[in-house]
Write a structure and sequence with these properties.
This protein has 122 residues and is mainly beta. It is 10% helix and 37% strand. It holds the Pfam family Atu4866.
Amino acid sequence: MATPCATHVDFTVLDAASVLAIAMGGAADPYSPPGSGRPRVVTTTAVVGAWRSPDGVVKLQLRKDGTYAGEVSGRRRPARGTYWIQGESVLLRDDSGLHTDVHVHDGELEMAGHRLRPASAA
């Protein structure tokens, strides 16, 4: 027996952001400026410096030379590598080859579910 229903969406192939957008009725990306089709551009001067989460679990140092160093509580090996800026994100590449996206939003960095603030303000 067939039942009428809305369009079927297979959630197993969608990432969390896509599912959230569907749940919110197709809401715009919260990191995009309102009323603009263009992504914000982040400059090096906006991100260079020391960052940390308010609880001190994550610490990140972005240097002017394009390298970074980071610490995560409970992780034995400190993170080191290079970074580059792409649109509104900072992309970290660990010495082991691991890539991490860091989003810049309202003077804070969002990385793997952690909000990082400038170390002097944390």
